[in-house]
Design goal:
Blueprint (H helix, E strand, L loop, with lengths): L9 H9 L8 E7 L2 H11 L6 E8 L17 E9 L10 H15 L4 E4 L3 E5 L5 E12 L2 E9 L24 H15 L4 H11 L5 E7 L4 E9 L5 E5 L2 E5 L2 E8 L3
Parallel strand pairs: 1-2
Antiparallel strand pairs: 2-3, 3-7, 4-5, 5-6, 6-7, 8-9, 8-12, 9-10, 10-11
Helix pairs in contact: 1-4, 3-4, 3-5
This protein binds biotin.
């Protein structure tokens, strides 16, 4: 117990998983790690594994985000989980897996009663009454050999002074309470279901879940240039398509630094 917050109960995670049809039951629980993604990748390097396994922790000391950012995981206040999945289990293209992980996690948040949306590729956002979006979670997918490690972070109970920026929020700050064990079980179940999705199934779901599509966006690309235009969709391979003054531009990786409703 730290700051009045209990540690994860591994038995409760298993009993929550037993309420679902999930076959992904190999889950290891730590009180403290540097990064669950780093630990999962180390495991993959040291063992021959063809199976799915998950690592979760109450606290990360060096949690990592996309684009070399840090991810804050104070003890007992959030979800920090990494799931190692053979890429062969997915029906979609490997480069689209981060978007499918987004669909799976976004669905969990909506089922809790949140007004959750995705910001491309897979930032987990909450839409406030002002139509402003605040970040509640994020996903870092890393490929390692024949596996992907899908790292999911969700702010469950972070207080205002624990949030990394003023553009972030947590479930408790929007008055939603959930046992972390139950949310972990639902994330695993939804991810397992997402492996089955074909592009005909996931593309329309992603389009309706994603606040970026249909908005004016400015994206900082890897090669230090920016592109501005209207996000009109995503490809089967996960790229964001932007209708810009350069014509249709596909973005594979980058940071959407502005999302405003389109005036078109
Ligand atoms: C982002 O929004 O930039 C992605 C954040 C991903 C955070 C999760 S928490 C579990 C896993 N372990 C990490 O070190 N990062 C991911």
């Amino acid at each position: 117990m730290k700051r009045g917050r209990p540690a994860l109960d591994p038995a409760l995670i298993l009993s929550e998983l037993a309420k679902t049809s999930s076959k992904w039951l190999d889950i290891e629980v730590f009180e403290q790690v540097d990064s669950t993604n780093d630990l999962a990748i180390a495991r993959l390097s040291n063992t021959i594994s063809n199976s799915v396994f998950a690592i979760t922790a109450d606290e990360q000391l060096k949690g990592r985000g996309r684009l070399q950012r840090e991810w804050q995981s104070p003890f007992g206040a959030g979800i920090a989980i990494s799931i190692a999945v053979p890429t062969s289990l997915f029906k979609c293209e490997v480069s689209a897996i981060p978007l499918l992980a987004g669909i799976a996690a976004n669905d969990c948040l909506n089922n809790l009663g949140a007004d959750a949306k995705l910001k491309w590729p897979n930032d987990l956002m909450i839409e406030l009454e002002s139509t402003e979006l605040k970040k509640i979670g994020g996903i870092l997918v890393q490929r390692h050999g024949d596996h992907v490690v899908i790292g999911i972070g969700i702010n469950v109970d972070l207080a205002v002074d624990e949030l990394p920026t003023e553009n972030a929020t947590s479930l408790s700050l929007i008055n939603l309470r959930v046992a972390r064990e139950s949310l972990i079980a639902k994330l695993l179940m939804n991810l397992e279901l997402a492996t089955e999705l074909t592009s005909e199934e996931w593309l329309p779901r992603y389009t309706s879940d994603c606040a970026t599509i249909g908005s004016n966006v400015t994206v900082a690309r890897k090669v230090e240039s920016i592109v501005t235009g209207i996000a009109v969709g995503v490809r089967e391979s996960g790229e964001l398509i932007i209708d810009s003054s350069e014509g249709l531009v596909e973005i594979t990786s980058g940071d959407v630094i502005q999302v405003r409703p389109s005036t078109k």
